[in-house]
Amino acid sequence: MKVTAAVSPSSTAPFVIEEVDLDEPRPEEVLVKLVATGICHTDLHAKAWSSGPIVLGHEGAGIVIAVGAAVSGLMPGDSVVLTFGHCGQCGECRRGAPAYCRHGAELNNAFGGPGLRTDGSATLRKSGEVLAGSFFGQSSFASHSVVHQNNAIKVPDGLDLAVLAALGCGFQTGAGAVLNVLQPLPESTLVIFGVGGVGFAALLAARSAGLLNIIAVDPSAERRELALLLGASAAIDPLAEDAVSKIRELSDGGASHALDTTGVPQVLSSALSSLRRRGKLVMVGIPQGPLSVDAMDLLAHGKTISGSLEGDSDPKVFIPELVGRHQRGGFSIDQLVTRYQYQEINQAVAAQKRGGSVIKPVLLW
Fold first, then answer.
1. CB neighbours of 127 closer than 8 A, spacing ≥ 6?
2. Residues 6+ apart with CB under 8 A from 85
3. Cα dihedral 50, 56, 59, 65 sign
4. Count of Cβ atoms closer than 10 Å to residue 81 Cβ
5. I need a surface site. Which of 27, 67, 149, 273 has the fewest CB within 10 A?
6. Over the chain, what is the mean pLDDT?
7. Spatial separation of the C-alpha atoms in residues 43 and 229, rounded to whole Å
8. Is 162 exposed, middle or buried, given 0-12, 13-18 or 19+ CB atoms closer than 10 A?
9. Residue 147: beta bridge partners?
């Protein structure tokens, strides 16, 4: 079928709105009419690393319009949030950790994948030629997407899908890093290094879990101000003061928990130094270089550092949980969303790169 897509022609060229051909759904796939798609920094990293035309997008939300013969639990008319691909059969998937699926790399076509289904077939073509797609199993910078049923998470009808779209990746990652991995107690002190879409989702999740001591570290004055409005107890400008010293001052010697969303080695080192004894640091940002760790600090003070993909979540369980928190008013992700028409994708990308008041740009289809 003919669909509209925002195509990335190359690693450096702006997105172009074009008509492309979308394959029919296979027996275990569903066809989704997109309503909204979040823009994530991962999309921009993948664009920068791409070697040719590709349709990106991995925070889609929309309405199911057709299902394959082997699909269960979904039907036309269902509202769905699209998330990362996972096989559902390997040991990690069976243990409830699909973010670490042994087949995740090929299912998600992330960072250099061929842009095809795992059987080598294409979901997208342009003028008869294969167009790289299946990014995170969805390529949802498009009006329609064909996805495996594992990628589509049913949500209640009637909700604002532009608000829910980023639950498929960014919001899920930040919230999951707090609720599933760090698991702070209400009396804990959490420091979040970098408050973009992921960091703000972490902040909101921490507040929904009852935390009162949440420190945001970010060079953007607009984002520090918003962090305080959304429940942070303090916000630090790392360019204006020593963040580690200030955190220790605010937290009786150091934070019990820290989250890094930046992937910047120097920031990770600061995050680790800001922890008190037996503190825990989780990193979720794509690494921007090699990390040098003070092993004696880890050993002598019982600190831990770990990575986390997609908030260590099982999307079929965790996305509905986050939707419920949002419906009850305890996870106000609607305050993070700025809407753009899909034709404005390049303006949305530019706004995200500026790192100011636009936290989560979302395209409307």
1. none
2. 101, 104, 107, 108, 136, 137, 138, 147, 148, 150, 151
3. negative
4. 29
5. 27
6. 96
7. 28
8. buried
9. 30
- Whether 187 and 159 map to the same domain: the answer is no
pLDDT tens digit sequence for 106-158: 999 876 678 999 999 999 999 999 999 999 999 999 999 999 999 999 999 99
Specify if 200 maps to a domain: yes
CATH number at residue 242: 3.40.50.720
Distance of alpha carbon 325 from alpha carbon 330, whole angstroms:
5
Are 34 and 145 spatial neighbours (Cβ–Cβ below 8 Å)?
A: yes
Gap between the Cα atoms of 44 and 34, Å rounded: 20
Q: Name the least confident of 18-22, 254-258, 285-289.
A: 285-289
Place of tokens 């004055």: 221
In this prediction, residues 64-92 reach a mean pLDDT of: 97
- Considering the domain architecture, whether residues 22 and 126 belong to the same structural domain is answered as yes
User: Nearest CA to 135 among 44, 248, 221, 56?
Assistant: 56
Cα–Cα distances in angstroms (integers) from residue 115 to residues 101, 229, 322, in the given order: 18, 41, 30
Assign 3-class secondary structure to 109-143: CCCCCCCCCCCCCCCEEECCEECECCHHHCCCCEC
Round to the nearest angstrom and report the end-to-end CA distance of the chain. Answer: 17
CA distance 275 to 282: 11
Closest CA to 269 of 230, 225, 221, 303: 303
| Cα 183 to Cα 143: distance, rounded to the nearest angstrom | 37
Domain count, the chain: 2
Among 114, 26, 111, which residue's Cα sits nearest to residue 67?
26
